[in-house]
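Quick one, tokens below:
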């Protein structure tokens, strides 16, 4: 009975999110459609670069997506030659981890256009979240089965598995080299050398679906978690909490709180020294931009500095309509990548953030949902020729209303 309750809760969570992820360099976006097809777009031009349907024996509904760190590619034809005559290996984003309702994890390579590794026999229930280690070939996963697993991506084998909570675990993130945060009934800080809990944080009444470390460089984890800030967001909760790790202090309360007019469905942040910029996509499809300098506790909830909306222009025979923002990503060039419209043919656009104004309304053409147009676009997509085994990843149905965090 308890297992059924956990599964129902997981289905309810799945009804609020969509597996959609943007690479850290904002070059690619990937999405898993309700019929299980992986779709990869180039964000600069909105071109659908790949559509992939893995073989039927891998069939399971996708629950979450996570981009792996950049890696060196020594594939022939992919090396850049230095002026000195030496060979420099191209470094790019390639691997994507795909969590499923069956508890398995697929490692998909966009270079090969195929599944590179299948990690099974770890979880007995659906995968809730995935977290790559940025400096080695390992990944962490959590599940409704109450467990957290540390995987070796190369071999596809379990390195370590432990019980992380008395109930479902919804989100995980690394905050230091050997320290992991997990969210279940509460937020826990784990020592990965002893697999013991160093501290607990409490502050949400509902399940925390997103943990996000505030790091100056996400590709370089600090040696110690002490002093590290992180964010947490919960289902149907309009508040995003900011926490600071200090294991010597018993205080479990949050350091600051970002206040939203409605609950968020996607979060992204950039840190520059002590300044943190947070972009939050809300359920109604707006983007809220927060700008805050981390300097001790803040009593009053922090309000957004900028609200971004998109609407159609309307005309003689129509009135302006709001256009749904599906996702957003803070780019390295200080601009904001906005994905809007619909998941069949999303529109990608980078905008400058004008923090001197509290509101920004972008007037754009309303996305056209034409079956003939969709079929024409899909016909232009080149199917990867790496494998002859082209079947389906996740043919089950999944209902969702917002992007994955």
């Amino acid at each position: 009975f308890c297992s059924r309750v956990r599964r129902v809760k997981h289905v309810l969570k799945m009804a609020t999110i969509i597996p959609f992820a943007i690479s850290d360099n904002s070059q690619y976006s990937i999405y898993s459609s309700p019929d299980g097809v992986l779709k990869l777009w180039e964000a600069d031009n909105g071109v659908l670069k790949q559509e992939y349907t893995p073989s039927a024996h891998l069939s399971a509904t996708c629950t979450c997506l996570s981009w792996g760190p950049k890696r060196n590619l020594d594939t022939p034809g992919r090396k850049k030659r230095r002026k000195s005559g030496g060979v420099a290996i191209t470094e790019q984003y390639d691997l994507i981890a795909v969590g499923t309702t069956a508890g398995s994890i697929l490692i998909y390579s966009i270079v090969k256009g195929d599944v590179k590794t299948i990690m099974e026999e770890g979880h007995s229930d659906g995968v809730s979240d995935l977290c790559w280690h940025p400096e080695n070939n390992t990944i962490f996963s959590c599940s409704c089965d109450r467990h957290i697993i540390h995987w070796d991506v190369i071999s596809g084998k379990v390195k370590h598995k432990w019980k992380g909570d008395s109930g479902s675990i919804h989100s995980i993130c690394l905050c230091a080299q050997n320290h992991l945060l997990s969210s279940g009934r509460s937020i826990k800080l784990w020592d990965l050398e002893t697999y013991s809990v160093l501290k607990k944080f409490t502050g949400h009444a509902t399940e925390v679906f997103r943990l996000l470390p505030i790091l100056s460089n996400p590709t370089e984890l600090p040696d110690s978690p002490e002093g590290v800030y992180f964010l947490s967001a919960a289902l149907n909760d309009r508040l995003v909490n900011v926490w600071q790790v200090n294991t010597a202090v018993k205080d479990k309360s949050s350091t600051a709180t970002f206040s939203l007019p409605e609950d968020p469905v996607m979060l992204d942040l950039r840190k520059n020294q002590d300044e943190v910029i947070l972009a939050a996509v809300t359920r109604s499809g707006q983007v809220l931009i927060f700008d805050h300098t981390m300097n001790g506790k803040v009593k009053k909830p922090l309000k957004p500095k900028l609200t971004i909306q998109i609407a159609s222009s309307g005309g003689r025979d129509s009135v302006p309509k709001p256009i749904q923002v599906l996702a957003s990503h803070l780019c390295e060039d200080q601009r904001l990548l906005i994905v809007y419209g619909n998941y069949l043919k999303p529109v990608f656009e980078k905008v400058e953030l004008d923090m001197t104004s509290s509101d920004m309304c972008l007037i754009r053409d309303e996305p056209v949902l034409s079956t003939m147009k969709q079929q024409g676009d899909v016909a232009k997509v080149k199917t990867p020729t790496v494998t002859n085994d082209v079947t389906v990843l996740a043919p089950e149905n999944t209902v969702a209303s917002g992007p994955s965090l």
